[in-house]
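Sat 14:20. Reprocessing the chain from the morning session after the first attempt stalled halfway. Input below, unchanged.
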Amino acid sequence: MKLRLIFAAALLLVVSCKYIDFIGNDQVIAEIGGRRLLRSEIESVIPEGIAPQDSIAMFRQYVNSWVVNNLLIHRAESELPKGAKDFDRAVEEYRNSLMVYSYEKLYIESKIDTTVTDSEALDYYHRNGHRMTLTNSIVKGRYIKILQNSPNTPLIKKLYRKEGEKNFQELMELCHNSSEKYLFFDNWRELGEIVRESPLDLHSAEIILKGKQYIELDDALYTYLLYFSEVRPAATTPPFEFVEVQIKEAIIEKRKQQLLRDLEKEILAEALEKNLIKTNLQ
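Finished this time. Tokens:
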């Protein structure tokens, strides 16, 4: 009952008193070029329980949008050339494309094996890795950001490029207690991802790493220490572990394409067997 009262109030705002029409028991709110907007359509999109003023605002907005959209349709129908209004073929082609896409997707999902073993991925890498190229350098190593006036900064500078478990544990403890931020990583990372945490830009870092495997720089407050135990330069072949996920995705994609080829052969053979294909080729 409350919703009906809200609609009654809204109608007074948007509908002229001399224009009230009904289809059955449903009130016509607006009409343009034979298209009618019914009250029931608007009721279906306005949530129950919202404030009266919000219901009225939504009501008016819906009507205004409907009117503008249908005025544009009316104008297009009257002014577009006849050929530009013939959408039947385009709609049919789009419908067919959607059906084919949906069926192919369903077919693939019912048959695809998404398990790719490490040995399959490694074999793919050995056969195709030479075609893969790194866009930017990738690295393994350490990144440390520490206040210049920290009492541990000199000792960290001495340790951050040293290998060995004892040095590593001491460095880790020092960084944990006194650094602003640190990252020790033994998996391959994009160089840009690491230097983004420093004042250095990627291009400058690429140039520095051509001559050495570490970078030290300062800004107004902090010292940045970057040491790279391994570097794979840009324009070289990436290591297997860096592209393993990408390779497994590529293998699955190849399986999908093979399934689609199998589907085409299957439906063609079935159609020939059932004499469903008729051609008139000279």
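The two ends are 73 Å apart (CA to CA).
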